[in-house]
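[Automated response] Your request has been received and processed.

Submitted sequence:
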Amino acid sequence: MPAEKEIDPSESLESFIADMVRDARKQRGWRQQDLAAKVFSSTTRISEIENGDPPDLKLGRQLDQVLELGGRLANLLVIRDRVAFRDYTQGFLRDQARARSIYEFSLVVPGLLQTPAYARAIMRLEDPDGVTDIDGSVQRRSERQVIFDGPQPPWMWLVLDEWALTKVMGSRKVMREQIEWLLEATQRPFINVQVLRTDRAVIRGSVSLLTLASGEQTAYTEGFGTGRYMVEAAEVDVFRKIYDRLHADALGVDESQEFMRDALGMHDD
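Generated structure:
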């Protein structure tokens, strides 16, 4: 169970929520395990909330009622989700970095599996006016990949559109390096890639499904220049079903590795 840490409620909305829950609990003379029992949760989850990891809306409403917060906690959680919708990548990237599992469909190689050269090629294409600090963005994207080097890396299962392997992004050399890296990455037991052939239906964008340490499931979808991060169970369930259909139509893991090896030959100079 995480140790109780100092919280500055003015630091962020998450910290304000943590302080609110902790203060209301202590005013009633309850231990964390007492509060956990009253909302049918775990002591660990209550500790996480009080250390700055907010509850989902369902648990938030239960805490609201038990702690007699008058609906303030639920309102703050709704505001937080709306802010995350406007700055749609912030909440997703934060949760992706601590997810237990990541299931993803993508039309291009996703950031967690991109080589620096491939990432740079995509960023240049998306920024024709050159207003982005591409070197800095590439570095930050590469730094996110350290989640696979820790003692408990996330389980990742990627369904990758065939186009991502056959279309030239940057140069043929860039593509060869990227495919070789994908093949190397799939030697790790927690990274799996399946290829969806072009004769199968796809959606217009990417889908990422996260399972967090708390067991909460979230979904993120992104198209060109826009995206949305979802935490409500009903919305997440819709994208789970979409992912399942794409996954069912993809080549098997062994067939996909063979396809990737064949794709290397398409990018010979």
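Summary generated for your ticket: The first strand starts at residue 101 and ends at 106. The two ends are 55 Å apart (CA to CA).
If you did not submit this request, please reply to this message.
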